[in-house]
């Protein structure tokens, strides 16, 4: 009888010990389940955000393609192509280059009357297609030094020629606030041919 009681007591003690030992593992299990649920919820939120980002990316790509197609459909030189205008997408400019020998007599800065009609056409196109754009008139010369004319140097000559074109553009209705006269002298040649380097560039800035 005493043996049975001892055995029963030991059995109860063993059960209590096993139950007590399981409690920490039960708590850990419940903690892991909670963390798992939290992670699953976080993953679902991330997935939703990712899907939204993908949809926004696709929408922006469509808009970009539409804008590119619309730009491709437009005349590259904005109406100035018939006057020799060249569109530079990297700079966002349209440039019409006029040889100084056609516009001016040698060493002079007064416009030839016979060539003003071309300037008039260019001015009309700018007024019609680019009325709100800034326009730079850039004068260039060759490397020959000034000897007989009244100008101090090629910088002054190129600037005076640019000013002559600017004043003519103003006379044709282009606002003076949209125009700038720039003299570059002989410092920006386009090649070895001097007649090509003697030039005036009419530069329309599309994005200013």
Give a brief description:
Helix content is 54%, strand content 14%. By secondary structure, the protein is α+β, with helices and mostly antiparallel strands. α4 (154-171) links the parallel β3 (134-140) and β4 (179-183).
CATH superfamily of the largest domain: OmpA-like domain
CATH architectural designation of the largest domain: 2-Layer Sandwich
Beginning-to-end CA distance, first to last residue: 108 Å
**What percent of the residues sit in helical stretches (DSSP H or I)?**
40-55%
Question: Can you give the mean pLDDT?
Answer: 83
- What is the structural class? alpha+beta
CATH class category label of the largest domain:
Alpha Beta
Structure description:
The longest helix has 72 residues, at 2-73. The chain has 5 helices and 5 strands. With 208 residues, it is α+β, with helices and mostly antiparallel strands. The N and C termini lie far apart (108 Å). The chain folds into 2 domains: 1-73; 81-205, 60s Ribosomal Protein L30, Chain: A (2-Layer Sandwich).
Task: Name the descriptors.
single chain; 208 residues; alpha+beta; 60s Ribosomal Protein L30, Chain: A; 2 domains; 5-stranded mixed beta sheet; 5 helices; 5 strands; 54% helix; elongated
Please specify the SSE layout and strand pairing.
Elements: H1 2-73, E1 86-88, E2 93-99, H2 100-103, H3 116-129, E3 134-140, H4 154-171, E4 179-183, H5 194-197, E5 199-205
């Amino acid at each position: 009888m005493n043996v049975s009681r001892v055995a029963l007591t030991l059995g109860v003690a063993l059960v209590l010990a096993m139950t007590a030992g399981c409690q920490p593992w039960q708590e850990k299990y419940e903690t892991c389940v909670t963390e798992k649920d939290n992670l699953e919820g976080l993953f679902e939120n991330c997935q939703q955000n990712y899907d939204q980002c993908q949809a926004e990316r696709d929408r922006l790509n469509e808009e970009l393609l539409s804008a590119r197609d619309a730009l491709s459909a437009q005349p590259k030189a904005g109406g100035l192509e018939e006057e020799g205008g060249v569109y530079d997408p990297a700079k966002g400019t349209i440039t019409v280059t006029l040889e100084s020998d056609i516009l001016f007599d040698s060493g002079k800065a007064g416009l030839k009357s016979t060539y003003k009609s071309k300037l008039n056409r260019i001015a009309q196109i700018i007024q019609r297609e680019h009325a709100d754009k800034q326009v730079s008139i850039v004068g260039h010369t060759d490397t020959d030094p000034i000897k007989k004319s009244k100008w101090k140097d090629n910088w002054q000559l190129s600037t005076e020629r640019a000013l002559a074109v600017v004043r003519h553009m103003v006379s044709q209705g282009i606002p003076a606030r949209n125009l700038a006269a720039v003299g570059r002298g002989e410092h920006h040649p386009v090649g070895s041919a001097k007649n090509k380097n003697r030039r005036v560039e009419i530069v329309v800035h599309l994005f200013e």
